[in-house]
Amino acid sequence: MDNPSALARLDRRVAECRACPRLVEWREEVARTKRAAFADWTYWGRPVPGFGPADARLVIIGLAPAAHGGNRTGRMFTGDRSGDVLYQALYDVGLASQPTSVSADDGLELYGVRVTAPVHCAPPANKPTPGERDTCRPWLVQELTLLRPTLKAAVVLGAFGWQAALPAFAAAGWTVPRPRPVFGHGARVALDGLDLFGCFHVSQRNTFTGRLTAEMLREVLRTAADAAGLP
């Protein structure tokens, strides 16, 4: 199988999905009405596929695109405050070519890392329903399956992502312990050949209050990069 081509085909299929009526309505309404600061933008307004190389050794799994972030730019964690924090940290530990992520054509490259989410559409109030999470899971399962030949580590941002990711890893062929591991910042779980790490989400609620500091995020990313064999 030509993995880059297979992943590119998957990304195109993700971007065409209309499986969740509430999410379709919301993402398209946001794209029409826009935010005043982005009035001159043509919003993406579609599901946002993963971002990063097909031979990634480390995957970062978030929650869902932001209404005026990924839903506007068409790239995961791009154009919002959460992305500002995440990509700065990736740059600081040598996993990104630049510290900012503002648009899909800004030249950003990730080194050995792919960024994705268990829900690919921006949800109202940043809260997908359990049903929407479950409907979207097959996309994550397919993505993880394609990444499996090279994937050695994963960082999951937040409890929602953790709860969504564990069954996806199981469906993609990894053995997930029973009972399922509990989410926590700094949690580390071995999944036969892959190290899974928990990290508080890079949401403004966490970063503005100091629950997640830049150094805490860098520490998790450094540890995961080491586990993945990344320089």
Automatic annotation (TrEMBL):
Pfam families: UDG (PF03167). InterPro entries: UDG_Type-4/5, UdgB-like, Uracil-DNA_glycosylase-like, Uracil-DNA_glycosylase-like_sf. The keyword Iron-sulfur applies. Residues 49-221 form the Uracil-DNA glycosylase-like domain. Coiled coil: none annotated. It comes from the Bacteria. Keywords: 4Fe-4S, DNA damage, DNA repair, Hydrolase, Iron, Iron-sulfur, Metal-binding. Belongs to the uracil-DNA glycosylase (UDG) superfamily. Type 5 (UDGb) family. This is Type-5 uracil-DNA glycosylase.
